[in-house]
TrEMBL record:
Gene3D superfamilies xrefs: Jelly Rolls
Top-level lineage group: Bacteria
Domain Sugar 3,4-ketoisomerase QdtA cupin: 11-135
SUPFAM superfamilies, alphabetized: RmlC-like cupins
Keywords: Plasmid
The protein, known as: Sugar 3,4-ketoisomerase QdtA cupin domain-containing protein
Keyword Cytoplasm attributed: no
Entries under InterPro entries matching the protein: QdtA_cupin_dom, RmlC-like_jellyroll, RmlC_Cupin_sf
Length: 137
């Protein structure tokens, strides 16, 4: 895990398939590199809306598209990249100090987020220049 530079990687979850359908499961500390403290969902998001627009001081997250698709734009203060999430078995892990923006939601998209900490407003960078200053330290 890096020091102050953010870290992003894709995660693929196991799939159990039989004639009755598919089952995917998540175990904190096994499939995601932290103990899951919070789970939340984004849904009924208008297709022209944007979510995110922040980074975290300490929190780690994994984002999944349980249904539909959306784009996640990533900025670690040095490089930018984007990921399209559309497979419920594939998630995007983000360490601390990663600025994220989510857009291009398809109709009916459901975004699930697994978080390493309970909600804490003081953990957020909501101002991009403050985020960049923290990364530079």
């Amino acid at each position: 895990m890096p020091g102050t530079k953010g870290f992003v990687r894709e995660i693929t979850l196991p799939q159990v398939h039989d004639a009755r359908g598919d089952l995917t499961f998540i175990e904190g500390g096994t499939h995601v590199p932290f103990t899951i403290q919070r789970v939340y969902y984004l849904y009924n998001v208008p297709v022209d809306s944007e979510r995110g627009g922040h980074a975290h001081r300490e929190l780690e997250q994994v984002i999944f598209a349980l249904s539909g698709s959306f784009r996640v734009k990533i900025d670690d203060g040095y490089d930018t990249s984007e990921y399209w999430l559309r497979d419920p078995r594939r998630g995007l892990y983000m360490s601390r100090l990663v600025w994220r923006e989510i857009d291009s939601f398809s109709q009916g998209a459901v975004c699930m987020v697994l978080a390493s900490h309970h909600y804490d407003e003081t953990d957020y960078f909501r101002d991009y220049s403050e985020f960049r200053a923290a990364v530079a330290q």
